[in-house]
Amino acid sequence: MVTIPEYYEGKNVLITGATGFMGKVLLEKLLRSCPGVKAVYVLVRPKAGQAPDARIADMINCKLFDRLREEQPDFAEKIVAVNSDLTQPDLDLSTKDQETLTGCVNMVFHCAATIRFNEPLKDAMQLNVLATQKMVSLAHRMKHLEVFIHVSTAYAHCDRELIEEVVYPPPVDYKKLIDTLEWMDDKLVSLITPKLLGERPNTYTYTKALAEHLVQQECGNLNIAIVRPSIVGASWKEPFPGWIDNFNGPSGIFIAAGKGILRTMRASNSAVADLVPVDVVINTTLAAAWYSGSQRHARPRNMLVYNCTTGGINPFHWGEVEYCINMTFKTNPLEQAFRRPNVNLRSNPFTNQYWTTVSHTLPALLYDGFLMLTGQKPRMMKTITRLHKAMMVLEYFTSHSWVWNTDNVTMLMNQMGAEDKKVFNFDVRQLHWAEYMENYCMGTKKYVLNEELSGLPAARKHLNKLRNIRYTFNTVLVVLIWRIFIARSQMARNIWYFVVSLCFKFLSYFRASSTMRY
């Protein structure tokens, strides 16, 4: 078998979702580790007045591409931005662009999707299902297509406890649902959405399940593979440890905990936190395309599904996540923290609600009151409200565990040569979670919040100040409560005098014994 870089040599690649988190890492890795690739076409829509070319030019100027820029200064010449909108008929491609893509593309990576869990069903269907249908239709017209990779999610079938590497029957017929949503107004759709979702927690997992079935039904003679990552987090090794550029998923929660805003969260300490580094997902994806493409004439035509997860191979639990976050941000604090980092995960909903009120809502109200008194605009309750919405979305995933079969991922690894295993490493048995979590937390500091490490001494000083304020406040509060209690209870007064007398006698004895010693 040819090596992975050899297979990609001279190939024309099409990527959707290249401006997203995973898409950027895929583009960078493909160009850096497969320098022989001929061209990479990326479907990009104009946004905020920026043309596709300008958006790509801005994107490749970020730190993610620094290593690639050093190794291959002219890498940008291989990137071709194509004006496209996946929600429009024919993907909004011009006739010329359609002819170019259908005439030269050898492989497709369909990464584009909406990852908002609470997206209205119509919008989620448009972006996750109908866009996939249009991409499959375009792929059928490609004369030299060798492989089509569809990026799904490991939670597409989260209504099952055991998830095999197969495409399961859909919750509904996607064609009938598409037809139905065309004539329904938004209000009616929102009313029927909970019934349609059934045991699934949101429209994201629901539409991803439908998209998988659509790909299976409409693939025809296309050579297709599906990659299902779980919770995609910061990079493990490539292009450097801890790369992350957004607040999505766990990243926003980590930052809120580091700032001291998040104090309590509903989660099961014993549940598996199936985080998977983004570079592991991308290496798996590139290897899956290599295997399906290079072996398309040598093996039976069947759609391979890869569960790109960590829980069954190298499990890490939410209780361990809590510990790592607290330790990292206490050692390397974020700048201008609201309170000292001390997040606690609670499985009991009533206990969690109590601490949410005490640790989140009340401090936020007091802080906003202080801001109003000093003539500033209140903002903390708005932040807390957004945080609570994010936590409610993630609650389902932090309170449950799943078992994913990963036989195909193991098979794929065994098919690779020694050098490919090094360059395109996705063996998560080698992943050291404590080190990874520290890099992840530091990545949110450096790349999301853009905080310099030179500011750490000042941040630590600020954290010590917060600690002293907390101790002082707690001491004053305890003394006040105790004094009020003593004033009302003779028994409390007797206990208080007894404790004080005992302490005085102990100190006297200690001083006397010290004097006798000398």
From TrEMBL:
One Gene Ontology MF term: alcohol-forming very long-chain fatty acyl-CoA reductase activity
Intracellular or extracellular location(s): Peroxisome membrane
Enzyme Commission identifier(s): 1.2.1.84
GO annotation terms (biological process): lipid biosynthetic process; long-chain fatty-acyl-CoA metabolic process
Keyword Nucleotide-binding belongs to the record: no
Keywords attached to this entry: Lipid biosynthesis, Lipid metabolism, Membrane, NADP, Oxidoreductase, Peroxisome, Transmembrane, Transmembrane helix
Transmembrane segments: 471-489, 495-512
Cited Gene3D superfamilies: NAD(P)-binding Rossmann-like Domain
Catalytic reaction annotation: 18-methylnonadecanoyl-CoA + 2 NADPH + 2 H(+) = 18-methylnonadecan-1-ol + 2 NADP(+) + CoA; a long-chain fatty acyl-CoA + 2 NADPH + 2 H(+) = a long-chain primary fatty alcohol + 2 NADP(+) + CoA; (9Z,12Z)-octadecadienoyl-CoA + 2 NADPH + 2 H(+) = (9Z,12Z)-octadecadien-1-ol + 2 NADP(+) + CoA; octadecanoyl-CoA + 2 NADPH + 2 H(+) = octadecan-1-ol + 2 NADP(+) + CoA
GO terms for cellular component: peroxisomal membrane
Ranges for domain Thioester reductase (TE): 15-284
Residue ranges of domain Fatty acyl-CoA reductase C-terminal in the record: 360-451
Cited Pfam families: NAD_binding_4, Sterile
Membrane topology: Single-pass membrane protein
Family of the protein in this entry: Belongs to the fatty acyl-CoA reductase family.
Role description: Catalyzes the reduction of fatty acyl-CoA to fatty alcohols. Catalyzes the reduction of saturated and unsaturated C16 or C18 fatty acyl-CoA to fatty alcohols. It plays an essential role in the production of ether lipids/plasmalogens which synthesis requires fatty alcohols. In parallel, it is also required for wax monoesters production since fatty alcohols also constitute a substrate for their synthesis.
Name used for this protein in its record: Fatty acyl-CoA reductase
Organism placement in taxonomy: Eukaryota, Metazoa, Chordata, Craniata, Vertebrata
